[in-house]
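Worked example 2:
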Amino acid sequence: MKTVAISVDQLRRPQPGGIGTYVRGLLAGMQEHYGEWTVQEVGPPIIGGSRWGTVAEKFRGRYYAERWASSDFGVTPHATVIHATTFTGPFGPPRAGTIRSVTVHDLVWRDQPQSTTARGREFHESRFQLVRQRDDIRIFVTTPAMAERVAAEGIDSSRIFEITLGLDRASEFSGDAASRLLAAHGITGPFTLCAG
């Protein structure tokens, strides 16, 4: 049976946000096909689940982030797929017979640099450049516009795959209804929703 290693570090944060929702949905979808493969959740310990306390858990989260720039720390050697749900990784060296992928959700550190810290901008840009230079990593994007932006960075289009996140069914706010709702609120082009 094949093993798919999926990074779950986002779920270990006090506020996992939209990416956390994506990760939970991905894990639930994988569970529906249990038996075709096994899933290994890779990441730091669950917050509150360690005898070492929250400070130690946060330190371990940073430890994973630093190690994952160049290693597959915590990933079974039997993984046939290693999927990074964010730029955190893991991004160890190429493995024969192993498929690597990462989801690029946005480039918000470039589009709205004021929405993060200097350290956050540096982290995301360095990981994006790492992924850009690694021909063995497939890149999942969530919109056609993001696919174009990633390709404009010199990444071969054969590495870029559009995926759909969100609801599996049409809703009253899809298609033309969604366009009308956005236009009513003055949104006429691509946008990044920031809540908080």
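The CA atoms of residues 87 and 127 lie 6 Å apart. The chain has a mean pLDDT of 86.
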